[in-house]
Amino acid sequence: MLRQLKEPFQYQRSGEAVESTAAGKGKRKPRAQNMSQTLKQMWSYLILYKGRLAAVIVMVILSSAFSLLGPYMAGTAIDRFLMNRDSGIIVFLLLMALVYALHSITMWLQSIWMITISQKTVYRMRVELFDHLHRLPIPFFSKRQHGELMSRVTNDIENVSSSLNSSVIQVFSSILLLVGTVSVMLSLSPLLTLLTFLVVPLMVLGMKWITKQTGRLFKAQQRNLGDLNGYIEETLSGQRIVKAFSQEKTVISAFKERNERIRVSGFWAQTISGFIPKLMNALNNLSFTIIAGIGAIFVLNDQITVGTIIIFVEYSRQFTRPLNDLANQWNTLLSAVAGAERVFDVLSEDEERKDEGAARELAEVSGKVVFDKVTFAYEGRTATISEVSFEATPGETIALVGPTGAGKTTLIQLLCRFYDPSSGSIMIDGHDTRTLKRENLRSHMAFVLQDPFLFEGTIYENIRYGKLDATDLEVQQAAKLANAHSFISRLKDGYGTVLKSDGSGISQGQKQLLAIARAILADPSILVLDEATSSIDTVTEIKIQEALQRLMKGRTSFVIAHRLNTIQQADQIVVLRDGAILEKGSHSQLLMQKGFYSSLVNGQLNNGMLSESD
After folding, report:
1. What is the pLDDT of residue 114?
2. 70 phi and psi, to 5 degrees?
3. What secondary structure letter does DSSP report for 17?
4. Mean pLDDT, to the nearest integer, of 140-152?
5. Cβ-based neighbour number of residue 332 at 10 Å
6. Dist. CA 370–CA 579, nearest whole Å
7. How far apart are CA 234 and CA 239, in angstroms?
8. Is pLDDT above 70 for 563?
9. Which of 28, 126, 147, 537 supports an S-S bond with 229, CB 3.0-4.6 Å?
10. What is the model's pLDDT at position 101?
11. Which three-class secondary structure state does DSSP give residue 45?
């Protein structure tokens, strides 16, 4: 994943596309509400390859023409060369062979070209979906299971791929064959054609009932599959907790329930859709019996020839075969539509608010941060932050303290523009953060979180994530400043050691040191520390504290902490409760006030802990 960082890399809930607003939201495409809308959106992807698609259509037309010509030539051969014993049968048979050969060639070409189109289309869809996911706001991911989202990027798009590879060609080809077959049959014998059509109403009624059932079942199958993938991802990620609390039987039982839902929906979807070929075969045999019986009578009365009967028998089969193919491909198409709707459902989600048209970039940031009467409320909720005001001077360390739910993390999210204040403003070096480009704003920040996240890749690559163009020497210097160089050197492959995505193979403290090295390499002006020394042993904590002191030197730092030694060293402590500032000042000043902070220190610091972060 890390090796790909340097490589380059929409629907509304209802109604029409929405133009960009003053708030900065981008345009959204109509959301897929039904099959026709979804197919229309799919067409918008296919039309991008209109040249090759036109070539496929030409090949489909030619293959259909050759398919219609073959049976006609077979009937003609019987009348001319077997019944009337005309000469030239060898040449005629060679022409027939050529027709069937051309039919095979055109079928092969249309298949190859359509596969190319379908793979390019789903590649484009994956890129667009993955890109869109990275432009969605943070709250979107907090409401969705990651495994379920992964299912949309993989399984659902793969369903679309499978359908495009075969269904699009098959549907178009089947329609052409139906039209051509009916035209030729009418020209040969309107009466026999009418008799053949007797089975059509039965086919239509049967297909209508079956597809109505399977459409619902295929959607349920895709939904259940996404739910199962989300549950698997969740339980595998939390495997330590599962084992620690001996909940293996519980999660296995829950897995079986979800797996059973997929089995049931898949069973009925496949079973009911399996009725279609059997229904078509039965009606096909009925049609053949009618044509053979009535046709024999016509031949005896010299109304038609034996060759015509042969042609009609072949065309009657050719007439029901496209119907059968349409029915089978319809089920595949329904499954693909179900997957495509889930993809377009994500694409319909509002992106993170776009930067204002006049948004600017800051080349340098000194680190002066001012919160001025900042109020914020999540959608449909009461205010989480209310009238918060304080100032951080360049190089100052601000500790955010308070009980769970006080609003500490929300302040940090506002600072990073994961959200914007409902009222009030946050100023950086005199500039309202809402007037700055998000990417530029965050480029001046670095984060060291309570649970450091490492990507799959080498230690070099994980540290270099803070600055992708950093040299190996710069990476090593950052590791030394973070007190990580010594343990890295002891690893078998040193900085080339490949870590898994969860950082397995190294301790929690070592992961934290790598996260600090990553932040040092980024050289930020503003630093955010979210309980960076939580759950760390004393020896490792000393190393981390030393590394953090180097990292924080000369930088404006915001620290969410509940360890006393971290809080005492802060230049300013902001005490929050219920989203409002209760007290602020240095550690000694707040103790002298004998207020809420003092009670927390005296009452809750016997174990060295002040509060839990929210």
Report:
1. 86
2. -55, -55
3. P
4. 76
5. 20
6. 17
7. 9
8. no
9. 147
10. 92
11. helix
Mean pLDDT of the 453-467 span: 88
Question: Residue 210: which residues within 8 A CB-CB, separation 6 or more?
Answer: 272, 273, 275, 276, 279, 327
**What number is the average pLDDT over the span 543-561?**
83
CA distance linking residue 190 with residue 211, whole number of Å: 31
Q: Per the CATH hierarchy, to which homologous superfamily does domain 6-347 belong? A: ABC transporter type 1, transmembrane domain (1.20.1560.10)
Work out the mean pLDDT of the chain and round it to a whole number. Answer: 79
Report which of 584, 570, 590 is spatially closest to residue 396, judged by C-alpha positions: 570
Residue 598: pLDDT over 60: yes
- The two tokens of residue 467 are 């600055």
CA–CA distance, 221 with 226 (Å, rounded to integer): 9
Would you say 26 and 356 are in contact if contact means Cβ atoms under 8 Å apart?
no
Span 272-302, pLDDT tens digits: 777 766 777 777 777 777 777 777 787 777 7
More confident site: 538 or 61? 61
In the chain, domain spans: 6-347, 358-444+556-614
- Neighbouring CB atoms inside 10 A of 361's CB total 12
Intrachain domains 6-347 and 358-444+556-614 with the same fold:
no
Calculate mean pLDDT across residues 497-513.
Answer: 80
- DSSP lists the bridge partners of residue 340 as none
Domain 358-444+556-614 listed as CATH 3.40.640.10 = no
**Pairwise CA distance, residues 44 & 35, whole Å:** 14
Q: Which of 516, 527, 208, 230 is nearest to 396 (CA)?
A: 527
Residue 17: CB atoms within 10 A of its CB come to: 11
